[in-house]
Design goal:
It contains 4 helices and no strands. The chain is mainly alpha-helical and about 80 residues long. The longest helix is centred in the first third of the chain and has 16 residues.
């Protein structure tokens, strides 16, 4: 799985489930301040990632995610 495919999957979640404009989704985008996500939204993203990549994501890891890049980095390490 390439990093780009992980990014595309996450971006698709952000656009389709949370109706975020694709133009503002950057790897450095803050989940909370730039994308206006709340904790429950981030948990929903984690559940989608768990299903897609057949992994478990502890809640403590979700709490560490601040940017889109943080999520991509985490998933990349879990599926290698």
């Amino acid at each position: 799985m390439t990093r780009r495919k992980i990014e595309d999957f996450i971006n698709n979640i952000l656009v389709t489930q949370f109706e975020i404009d694709a133009g503002i989704i950057k790897s450095s985008a803050s989940l909370r301040s730039d994308l206006k996500l709340v904790d429950s939204d981030i948990s929903d993203i984690a559940m989608d990632l768990e299903d897609e990549y057949n992994i478990g994501i502890p809640e403590v890891e979700e709490d560490r995610w601040r940017t889109v890049k943080n999520i991509v980095d985490y998933i990349e390490t879990k599926i290698k």
